[in-house]
Design brief:
The chain has 229 residues and is mainly alpha-helical. Helices cover 48% and strands 8% of the residues. The chain has 7 helices and 6 strands, in the order βββββααβααααα. It has a two-stranded antiparallel sheet. A two-stranded parallel sheet has the order 3-6. A hairpin with a 7-residue loop joins β4 (41-42) and β5 (50-51).
Length: 229
């Protein structure tokens, strides 16, 4: 399922970040951003409650761009750390170990540009739209919701590749090893237009992996929202 599956052993996930939501290869980074889904409900809990899906689609695309900027900020910070290590008055052996570690982290950031764009308040959204969480209808809605989010994120990553370049090791052949990507760009994804796919073939993707679901839950939206306190 991993979008990075076809890119060799170095990209095989061997563990996770501390909270467990992102399976990661060695030396890769956890970069997270959450979209509060309760911000996209019109007339929450009302008879005509509805998801403002086009607004959500637009904001997911913008969030993916922001996540890509975060990768650049991380690389910038890593460069600062590497320079500070080189200036340290310490044993050459210890300095070499530190430099080796941070150079490997930098290599993964540059070559993959992994992001972890996710959502919070999904159960609140389902309730606000009048569904009962866990029912077949709510599950079907959740599937369609995440298809929309995933497609928006990957469309944005493709547009970023056109503007800024794909992640350096991208290839269409390697992408073909991921079942997730085969579904994303396959005929069954009705949101994947010919225009998006043509750009994907020509320019590739900006990020080796885009999405995750962090264990934030409703604790991340304590306070007042459209639905009330």
């Amino acid at each position: 399922e991993s979008p990075a599956r076809g890119y060799g052993k170095i990209w095989e996930e061997i563990s996770t970040n501390p909270c467990g939501e992102i399976p990661l290869p060695a030396y890769d980074s956890c970069r997270l951003l959450l979209i509060n889904l309760m911000g996209y409900v019109f007339n929450a809990f009302g008879d005509n409650a509805m998801l403002e899906d086009m607004l959500l689609y637009d904001h997911v695309k913008k969030a993916q761009r922001l996540m890509d900027d975060v990768v650049d900020l991380e690389i910038e910070k890593i460069d600062t750390i590497i320079e500070s290590i080189k200036k340290k008055q310490s044993s050459l052996e210890f300095q070499a170990v530190e430099l080796n570690l941070w150079n490997k982290i930098r290599e993964m950031a540059v070559n993959g540009r992994r992001t972890g764009l996710g959502v919070t308040a999904e159960s609140d959204l389902i309730a606000a739209l009048g569904y009962q969480y866990g029912t077949p209808m709510a599950t079907l809605f959740a599937e369609k919701l995440h298809q929309l989010i995933a497609t928006a994120s990957y469309e944005s990553s493709i547009e970023l590749a056109e503007e800024r370049g794909a992640f350096p090791i991208w290839s269409m052949e390697s992408d073909g090893h991921s079942n997730f990507l085969l579904r994303m760009f396959g005929d069954k994804n009705e949101l994947m237009t010919d225009e998006i796919f043509d750009k994907y073939e020509e320019f590739g993707r900006r990020n080796i992996a885009n999405l995750t679901i962090a264990p934030a839950g409703s604790t991340s939206i304590v306070g007042k929202s459209k639905a009330g306190p």
